[in-house]
Every structure is written in C-alpha cells, then in structure tokens.
Design goal:
271 residues, alpha/beta, Rossmann fold, 7 strands
Length: 271
C-alpha cells in the first residue's frame, strides 16, 4: 500500500546489489511512495550484482562510485542533482565490508591493513559522503540521511568480528555529524539497527544461520524483515519524522531490550 509519503522527494541510494539487499527493498518502497533517486554502488559490486534490473524497475539512473573516494562522491552528488533536477532530500548508506570476515581471520588475529580497508568502506565512507553533501550544500532543509547498522555495535557477537567495531564507529559518526547537519542545515541523520537479515553480505558471516534463529527466539515480535526495514526507512525519509535525529533506532522485534525469552529458557532446560 502506498501513501505518497515521498512524493516530490529526491535522493541517493547506496548499496543495492541484488534482490537480497536491504537497499534493494528500500529502493522499491521509496519508488512506491513517490520518491525518485539515483542508485550507486562500487564498480566491482555492480559487476557482481543486478542493479540494472532495479534501475529499470524504478525508473532510476545508475552512477558508479567508490564511496571511499572523495572525487567519486563529489561526482556522484553533482550528477545526481543534475539528473534529479535539484537538491537531495534523502540518502541511504547501506555499505559494509570486512576482509577479515571474508578471509576467515579470527578477531584475535586480524590483519590490520584488511581492518583499515573494512573500516574505510563500512564507516569512514559515511563521513566522506556527509562531509561532501555538507560542503556542497547539496541537501534540502529537513532532508534525511540514514545508515544501516547492527546491534553488534553494542553487544558482542564473536563471529561478527571487526564488523562490530566498524558499526560502532558508523553510529558514532551519525551522532557527531548529525549534530552539525541539524544545527546548520536542518538535516536529520539516523542509523537503523536491523535484525539479522539474510542478505548476500550477511550470509558471509560464520554461524549466520544461528544468529537468525537465536534472534527469532529472543524477539517478542520475531525478526524484522528487509521489507520491515524498508518501511521504517521510508518513515525516516518522510516529513513525519522531521525532528528525529542523531538516533540509533532498533528495528529488531524487541530483541535489543529482551534479556532472555521463554523459548530460549526452555531450549536450555530440556532434558
């Protein structure tokens, strides 16, 4: 069901790879709600994914960009404003990568150059995007910027590895930049802490199936789906949340505030 919540709004969506991406679902929902946008991803990711299908489905153009490269970001923002016909109203940052996770390195034995690469892609890129938007005055007043995160930023999940550190830094950047973007430009910056979701990237984490089933048993409402995240993101891009900023917002079925569930107790008291 569409409510035209984003009619007339323009944006940039980072990170849609294929139909398993949360960013893909968000793009679909934004389109349904009347928003127009440019899709972007790193050139290597675009070769691996199906972003052209999404562009055709949503009537969007694609601008390849490495979110760690300031020249690419500047070009992306300038071209997006040309294509969309004005300043930006919303931005989605849905980017995360850990070479250490991908290569199976344990947290106590990280390769630091890999860690630096993951840190740059997963967190520092968010600062680079916002700094460029800020300096070029590319955002409309009451615009909204959202990044996707995970609760490993607050709690330890052993196999989430250095991605947990990346997400903690991402959330800190959202708060810190959110202050200045709000004060000077009336732009909101928030993160959504999503339930474990079977995305292409998520499934690369060791024991991910266990993450999902445990969270499902721990969450009073069950795990939030990619579509749930898309709907929540639409609400944050809309004018209904004009004064929500600098928040880390949990979309996790109640997992983050549940100490233990009856299902988990029963699982460990079985005879």
């Amino acid at each position: 069901m569409s409510y035209n919540l984003l009619k007339g709004k323009r944006g940039i969506i980072f990170g849609a790879l294929d139909e398993n991406s949360i960013a893909w679902k968000i793009a679909e929902r934004v389109h349904e709600e009347g928003g127009t946008f440019v899709l972007t991803n790193a050139p290597i990711a675009m070769r691996m994914g199906k972003i052209k299908e999404l562009a055709e489905k949503t009537g969007s153009e694609i601008i390849p960009a490495d979110a760690t490269n300031l020249e690419d970001i500047q070009n992306l923002i300038e071209k997006s404003m040309e294509i969309l016909g004005g300043k930006i109203d919303f931005v989605l940052h849905s980017i995360g990568m850990s070479v250490n996770v991908r290569k199976g390195r344990h947290y106590t034995d990280l390769k630091y150059d890999w860690m630096t690469k993951g840190w740059d892609v997963s967190a520092v890129s968010f600062h680079k995007v916002m700094q460029t938007l800020y300096k070029t005055d590319a955002m409309n007043e009451w615009g909204s910027i959202v990044a996707l995160t995970y609760m490993a930023a607050q709690r330890t999940f052993p196999d989430y590895n250095d991605m947990a550190d990346n997400k903690a830094y991402l959330e800190s950047i959202a708060r810190s930049f959110g202050y200045f973007f709000g004060k000077e430009k009336k732009v909101r910056v928030n993160t959504i802490s999503q339930s474990p979701t079977p995305t292409t990237a998520g499934q690369g984490v060791k024991g991910f199936g266990g993450f999902i089933s445990y969270a499902e048993k721990m969450s009073p409402l069950g795990n939030a789906t990619a579509l749930d995240c898309a709907n929540y993101t639409v609400s944050l891009f809309s004018d209904l949340t004009k004064r929500v900023t600098m928040q880390n917002l949990y979309n996790d079925g109640g997992f983050s505030n549940t100490g233990v569930s009856q299902e988990v107790i029963e699982r460990f008291t079985e005879e």
